Amino acid sequence: MVTEIDAGIRQRLTLRFGAAVEPWLDELPDLLAGLAERWRLEVGAAVPRGTMSAVFHCRLADGRGAVLKASPDRARLAFEAAALGGWHTAHAPAVLALDERLGALLLEAIEPGAPLAVAGAYPGVERVAELLTALHGSGVPDPSYPPVGQRVAHLFDASTALYDRHPELTALVPPELYERGRRLGARLAGNGAPAVLLHGDLTPSNVLDGGAGRGLVAIDPAPCLGDAAFDAVDLLFWLADDVETIEARARPLAVASGLDAERLLDWCVAFAAMVALELGSQGDGHTGRVEALLALAARA
Fold first, then answer.
1. Cα–Cα dist 208/210, whole Å
2. How far is Cα 274 from Cα 182, in angstroms, rounded to an integer?
3. Rounded distance, CA 273 to CA 175, Å?
4. What does the alpha-carbon distance between residue 219 and residue 199 come to, in Å, rounded to a whole number?
5. Helix extents (H) in the chain
6. What angle do CA 202, 73, 111 make, to 5 degrees?
7. CATH for 7-108?
8. Which has the closest alpha carbon to 189: 152, 145, 214?
9. What pLDDT, in 10s, does the model give residues 100-137?
10. Superfamily grouping for domain 116-297
């Protein structure tokens, strides 16, 4: 059976890679068919997320669920597979197969698997600390991974595109405030904190519910090496309507995960303007959070 490549996949990957991705998308059904035969699996419905990869639910020959990812960015997918394979913990999915040449990665399916982003409730500091400690304690900081400073620079460079698409946001998040955050992030990345293998993109969309016995599970890493506090930022911000909530989370999280509370908050200050910019681009539904983030960003 030929797998249809739906409009959502085309739109998301074209937005990320540009028109040059079209030939790859046209060849994707044949690539999936070949992988299905070789890896003995049935490719199912597309997973409606992801800008770096086309993602599909699938079923293995033994009946287990799995997730198949295919990407034109083969190097990034290989880095992802290496990081996932190096995290010997239940808080990351197992790698079942990888074809680096074709840019295809097969992972175990996580059940029930709902992303934290759609849960509508904060998971609690203890569960977040358990996730961070498991990842940072089991991953091997191989020097082949890029430094976190490179990741910080990429994130700030990429998010400036929001100013181009929404010029009115310069009034909400002044570019000078944004650049102050960038400079603080660069300083934090380069100040010599012990380096661990970071997830690098630990957003609520990339954290799944693994059930009562497994806890939170991290997917879709952008692995890099650096300060462990970096990975906590997005989860500290999640569903926080005021600065006090962020600060109240940071202190017990620091204790539970062996991190420094001030460094956690410094990283939050560095990224506050960027997150405010992202929320502002989504419309008026996040006014309270944007105001809190701008107040935090002003500390940079």
1. 6
2. 9
3. 9
4. 9
5. 7-17, 22-38, 74-86, 125-138, 148-159, 161-165, 169-172, 175-189, 233-237, 243-257, 261-280, 287-297
6. 45
7. 3.30.200.20
8. 152
9. 999 999 999 999 999 999 988 899 999 999 999 999 99
10. Aminoglycoside phosphotransferase (APH), C-terminal lobe (3.90.1200.10)
